[in-house]
From TrEMBL:
Gene Ontology MF terms: sigma factor antagonist activity
PANTHER family: PERIPLASMIC SIGNAL SENSOR AND SIGMA FACTOR ACTIVATOR FECR-RELATED, PROTEIN FECR
Protein name: FecR domain-containing protein
All residue ranges annotated as the Protein FecR C-terminal domain in the record: 234-302
Keyword set, alphabetical order: Membrane, Transmembrane, Transmembrane helix
Segments passing through the bilayer: 60-79
Highest taxon above the source species: Bacteria
InterPro entries referenced in this protein's UniProt entry, alphabetically: FecR, FecR_C, Ferrdict_sens_TM
Domain FecR protein: 94-187
Source organism of this protein record: Candidatus Cryptobacteroides excrementipullorum
Amino acid sequence: MDDTTNKLNDEKTLLTDEELWFSAAAADSFHEYDAEAGYARFSEKVREATSKPHRRIRGLLYWTAAAAVLLLVAGMSYWQGGRQVRKDFSDIVVEAPAGSKTRMTLPDGTRVMLNAGSRLTYSQGFGMTDRTLEFSGEGYFEVEKNEKLPFVISTRELDLTVLGTKFNFRDYPEDGEATVNLLEGKVALDNNLKYMETRYLLPSDRMVLDKKTGEMQIIRAQVEKSVKWTDNILTFDEMLLPDIVKELRRSYNVNIVIENPELTSARFYGEFDQRTQNIYDVLDIFSATGRLSYEEDADRTIRLE
């Protein structure tokens, strides 16, 4: 028996009964058995049998890796797509022209009323990933509560953050002060003009921010008066005449000029109903104090003296 036949005998234990029977039958059928060819066939079977688990493992690893890559690509595509969608959102601008007021409901359910000359800007995605808006002028807000997405109003001077509350926010660019009057809830205020810790307002608190110095003052006040404008009531509580004039310009859409420099330090008190009192009714009442007079030019400019 040659070496090849000895190797076959040594490795027969690796074959199944069926494979052994097939080998024996083949030997009986042929007059001359080719041991070399038989060994080659046997070795091939052994290699196939022993390599199948490895192929299965490699296949499993391959598909696992492929699945992981697909999930990663899908996740990145979703994230990038979300970023692109947010990037493509347009800004929505709402304005209340001089002489008018605007009511609206934001996408999150927050109710807003803008006073004359006010402007509000927010993204089309408002309420999806954040509730941040830019604002100038005066507005009354009834904020829909959402603990996961705080409601943020941003101006050049001040950032106001709330979860759900009712307040009046006044910050016209031409005014010397910004004010917040809180009716319900709680708000956080961050001063953008001067570094200081976050300040908080409770109901019946009024915050006054001096735009020149950056100083922020919080006082107790009759905050209900601050929202009378929502019912077309103009309230001037010992206000400086220049500030009153700004309010009258916006509310009645008129051009008023202070000609007498001494009037810039004069203060007036009054409450007027825009539904029944026009600009001339208001000026007549101020004139009745004896502290000023007015006349109207051909170009309809009202001059105070």
